[in-house]
Amino acid sequence: MGETLIRAVDGVTLSVGAGEFVALLGSSGSGKSSVLNLIAGLDRPTSGSVIVQERDLAKMSREELARYRLHTVGMVFQSFNLIASMTLAENVELPMRFAEVDRGKRDRLVDEALTRVGLQARINHRPSELSGGEQQRAALARALINRPKLLLADEPTGNLDSHTGTEIMDMVREFNQQLGMTVVMVTHERALAERYAQRLIFLADGKLVGDELNPALSGKSESDHANADGERR
Amino acid sequence: MKLPDLTELALRNLRESLLRNSLTTIGISVGVASLVAMLSLGVGLQQLASRRLMKSGLFDTVVVTSRRDLRNFGGGDERNAPAPGESRVLDEPTRLEIEHLPHVLEAYPDIRFITELRYEDKPHLTMVAALPSSAQSNDAFEGVQGHFFSSDTAPEVVIQKAFAEELLGKSPRPGVDETNVATLAAPLLGKELTMRYAQREAAPAAPSAAANDKTAVPDDQNLAGAAYSVVSRELKLKIVGVADLDPESMRGPTRARVFLPLKLAESLHVMQPTDLREISRAPGDQPVYSSVSVRVKNPTEVQPVEDAIKKMGFNTFSILDASKSIRQFFKVLDVFLGIFGSLALAVAFIGIVNTLVMAILERRREIGIMKAIGASDDDVKRLFFAEAGAMGIVGGIFGVALGWAIGQVINLGTNIYLKSQSFPPEHFWSVPWWLVGFALLFSFFVSLAAGLYPAGRAARLDPVQALRYE
User: Fold this and answer.
1) Within chain A, which residue ranges are assigned CATH 3.40.50.300?
2) Contact at CB, A67 and B375, closer than 8 angstroms
3) What's the complex ipTM?
4) What DSSP letter does each residue of A75-133 carry, written as one string?
């Protein structure tokens, strides 16, 4: 972290309901990724609170945050972030190693997860042998392996062509609708957000500048579930 | 994360940068090998020394002298000693009494005298000593040419190398010991020596009682009404062995160069220096010894035996104290060798730190990913520890094997050299099990210690920063 104080997120108050599909929109440097990192428990606000399932992430220890990331959150990134030296199966298995899932169950779960994203034939390939779309599907399988309540996606289609991006987004929507997962997606593509998200939140210079239901999609109930309110250095 | 997962991940990470990790592991191996080599040399030398010293008979022997004898050794506890008048005489019943003490293997009189030996009609004056048959296992007879006495009463002698040289008219250059015992022994073995000695005979006895009557001593001993006389005798002895080393090493105050079987020497009743003094106390022909050597079953039992004999009223001497300082010397040697061995391991230590710090830089993103998907600080820390530990264990195993192999090669090489110099082979290299275990544990813990800093650094890594890093 730099010496000068940068307010990446300042005075943002928002709440996301269970099962919602929310898009965080903004240009680069608007603080949307920082908000996502706060919700993911990768970062902690210098002041304010981030409440997920009635627990304040800002007050958790590093150990508790790690457990929260492991069980409650699944994450996908723009650059996929698969571990290059591991096969797809090993990448997907990794969160289960941290969660100390029984070895006997793992193979089946890995197989199920990769089948769900259509990669059962690629199970022993390394990420470098796959296309971008395949890698992002593997990343999705990994994000879901510990059955999290919350899926956080940071520009998930940013490195993909529009066709592959649509494929990935269709999958994310499927998880949202069929598994009832809450999805928070960061993107700078308004068109993409409008196509999939129920709610659009706009950020600029670390401040909340807009929060609206997606006019293109029918709204959902407003039951408060997650709440982010903080600032970040 | 559970241990099997941890191990699996650590090993796969090590395989990923195989070259670098192998080089680091080789570094550890060399460090452990040098440690093992140094320590096993120390241990081996120590074992060799104590084996030698045990065999020399120095450490299981107590020399007993009468307190009346002015020639006593040590003399440290003069104050506790009874006044000379009340002290006991070291005679045959006392010898038997000592021999029946617990832990005592045997007690034999120390018979030694200076006399004339004739070889090919040339007289040689030298010190003669008696040896019990148990001396056969003595270290000094390891390189003996010929053989030991065929029986305890056989008229045979074993001579010392220096005396053999004298008999052959060779004068060894001082400080140079290059003559081979075998070449010295060849012309002497089986030859005869004639020993002339003074026999103490109970009185009244005619000077010509025995076979050789030509040389009755003119001044027939008749001191203070002593009840014995001294007769000159001759005895033909066969040379059966030539010893390379001095079989008596440090046992007596004077060194003998010719050795007789003990029973034979006893039967000769040779005039002893103590005889004159003991006349008044021990009349008759009961022999009185100047000193008795007591062999104890085990060096650890020397002290109680010594105490028991002291209680009987005699002076004792053993070399146990000397052995303490030898042991101390080896402890110091071990420490020094260990320090030198550890230096190599210290270099390996830095190698591990370097390798793991490099791995953190290289795997920064990977660490970030692991944290993002739920790895705790502890998981990351343990993973790096496991990698360091695995390198330590593998390095330790190879290191012990390498150290052992180095030892074998050096041992072999030295023995080839020893053989070429016609010395018996020696086993001065020893890798005991405790050293193997110690080296493995040491290597493991040194590696873990080396992983301490890198693991801590990896665990503290901020995932947001790490993921941003391309």
Assistant:
1) 1-72+148-233
2) no
3) 0.89
4) EE-TT----TTS-HHHHHHHHHHHTT--HHHHHHHHHHHHHHTT-GGGTT--GGGS-HH
